[in-house]
C-alpha cells in the first residue's frame, strides 16, 4: 500500500517509479438520484459495474429484518426512500421537507434532523445514505479484492457545513475512511483536465437530480483553482419531474398535490420522469398513469420545465462576476439533466459556447473523485493540487440579530479567521456564540450552523477577559472552532450544539448500535483500528527517518527511538487506549523533526530558493 | 488549536517576497502556487498527525497571505498596519471627502433603478478610485505615509459606493 506521501514531496523526481503500487482507494459520487463508485486502474479512472452497469439508484427500501438498496429497491412503493440527499443536514421544518408531492412519511423527533418513518422505525437521511455507501463499498471491495484504504466522497459545491458534516457522518457509519469531501464540479474538471491535459478557465454546469451547481475553475500547471462557485441546493431534475407531474395531475382532474395519495404521487412522478427522458429523443410520447392515458409533446414539456430551468441563470451570472473570469475555454456538463436538449440550448445561450460533453455526464463526477482518491493515496501524480473555496460566507450573530461575516464566500480553503470578544458582566465564566452561514445581513435570513458554548473563562471584572475565537475551515469545507482567553492564555472548553444533523455522540451511538454483538466487538474493532493507525504511523515515521536522517535533531533521537519502540510494544498487546497514548507520544517526539521536514519540503517547493534566505534578506 | 510553526511570520515572509508595495503579480502568484503544491493538506493526508496539522495551519496562513497581498488596496493597508498605522482608527476623515461622498450617495438614491445613470456614476467613481490607487503607489515610492493613508481612506469610501451601485444594479 502506498505510504510514500513524504517521499513524493521530498523527491518529486522519484515519485513516478513508486506509482506502481496502486492502493484500494475509491471515489464515490453519492448522488440524489444515482450513486457510483470508481477507482483508478492502470492509471485510468474506471467506474465499477455490476451486470446492470455502473449506476446504483439512490433508493433504499426498508423491511422489518432487511434493507434493500438500488435497482431492487425501486420495485417497492412503501417504506422506500429516494432522494435522501435532499434532506442531508436539514431539519423537519425546512422547505425540502414541507414541499408538495413528497412521497414520504416523516417520524416525529428533534428539530435538528429529518426522520423518515419506515417499516416501524425511524431513520435519518444520514443512515439512508450510509446504506447506499455500504453497497458501493461492498462492490468496490469485491472488485478490488480487499478492504478499502479510503474513499473520496463528492458533495455539491454549494453544500453548507451541516450538509457536509452529514455526508461525512454517513461515510463513517458505512465504515469508510473518508479521505476527503470533494466538490462535484471540481471532480468533473479533474476528470476532464487530467485526461485531456486542458489549461484555461472552465465553467462546470452541473444539473443533477436534486441540486444545481455552477463553478468557475482555472486550470494551470496542474493547479485546479476554484475561482467562484454558486448554485441552488434544492433545484434539479426532480423539480422538472414535479413540474410535469403537476400538469399531468391537472389533466387527470386531481389536485396538484395528489390529494395526499402517496402512491399516486409516486406513480405520477415516475411517469413524468420517464416521459421527460423519452422526450430527449422523441417529439411526443404517450403517458399512462393507472387508468389515465394521454400524450405529452416535447414543446409542452419544455414549457413546463423552462421556468424551473431559468432559476439557473442568476447563480451563473453571479459566479461569472465573482470569478472575474475573462474568456472561458469551455463549459463542462455534469448530471443526467444536462442530456435534455432544452438544457443544452439553455447552456449554449447562457455562455455563448457549445458545451463539452465527451465524458458521460453521469460518470464524470465519480471518475474525478477516483482520480482525487488516487492522488491522496500517493499515486505520484504529485504535481496536481485542488484549491477549493468556501461556498457560503460564515458569520457570527452579533447584538441585534445582525450577522457579522468572518469568512467570506469564495475564500480559498483551508482558511481561518480570528475574532476577539470581551465579557459584559463581572466574573462571567461562559460565552455563547451562534455561527451562521449565508450572504444576508440578518441572522434570521441566514442558515443556523451551530451554537458554541464556551466555559472555563477565569473570573474577571467585566470587559477584562478577552476571548480569542478562531474559526478554521478545513480542506473538506468543514468548520472547526477553537477559543482561548487571551490574558491568561487558557484554552476554554467548547460544547458544540449543531443546529442541524447529529451530534458526535449520536453518530457514535449509531456506530455502536450497528455492531450487533455488544461491547466486546466494539473493543475488538477499536483495537484493530488503533493497530492499523499504529502501523501507518510507524511506516510513515520510519520512511521519513530513512529519507531525511540529516534532519533528525540529535537531541531528539533517543526519545524518537523510545517512542517507536513503545508503539511497537503496545501494538502487540491488546489495549487500544495504550496504543493511542503511544501514538501520541511518538507524535510529540517527532514534532521538531516534522517541522524540519515541512520546511525542507517548502524549500524544494519554491525551487531552490529557500524561505529562510528571503526572510533574512527582508529583515536586513 | 495548534499554532502554525511560524505564527509570527508576516504575509511577505510567508510567501517569500520582499516587504514592499510594488509587486509583480505573476511572480507573487507563481510563488503562492508553488508553496500551495507543497503545503496543501491533500499532499499530507497520509502523513502523521503532526505533519497533517502543520500542513493545515500553514496552508491557512499561506491563503491568508495571498488574499491580502494579491489585492493592491489590502496590500497597502497591510503594509501600513505593519508600521502600526490602522487607517480605520487613526485617520480622521476630511470633511470635504464626507461632503463629496454624501452628494454621490444622494445622486445614487435619485438614480436608483435607472441602470444607465447608475452605471455612469459608477464609472466616474471607478476612475476616481484608479487615481487614488496611483496616489498610493506614488506615496509608497516617495515614502509619504500620510499621502498613502489619505488615498486609502478615499478608496474605502469609493468601494462602499461601488458596492451599493452594484447592489442596485443586481436588484
Output the keywords.
heterodimer; A: 620 residues; alpha+beta; six-stranded mixed beta sheet; five-stranded mixed beta sheet; 18 helices; 27 strands; 25% strand; disordered N terminus; disordered C terminus; B: 171 residues; mainly alpha; 8 helices; 0% strand
State the helix count of chain B: 8
Shape of chain A: globular
Query: Average pLDDT value of chain A?
Result: 83
Number of strands of chain B: 0
Shape designation of chain B: elongated
Structural class, judged by helices and strands of chain B?
A: mainly alpha
| Helical fraction of chain B | over 70%
Give the end-to-end Cα distance of chain B, rounded to a whole number of Å: 42 Å
Major sheet details of chain A: 6 strands, mixed
The poorly predicted ranges of chain B are none
Please tell me about this protein's structure.
- The longest helix of chain A has 30 residues, at 518-547.
- With 620 residues, chain A is α+β, with helices and mostly antiparallel strands.
- The two termini of chain A are 47 Å apart.
- Chain A is globular.
- In chain A, strands 1, 2, 3, 4, 10 and 11 form a six-stranded mixed sheet that branches.
- In chain A, 38% of the residues lie in helices and 25% in strands.
- Chain B has 171 residues and is mainly α.
- Chain B has helices at residues 11-15, 25-39, 49-69, 72-82, 87-90, 95-111, 115-142, 145-170.
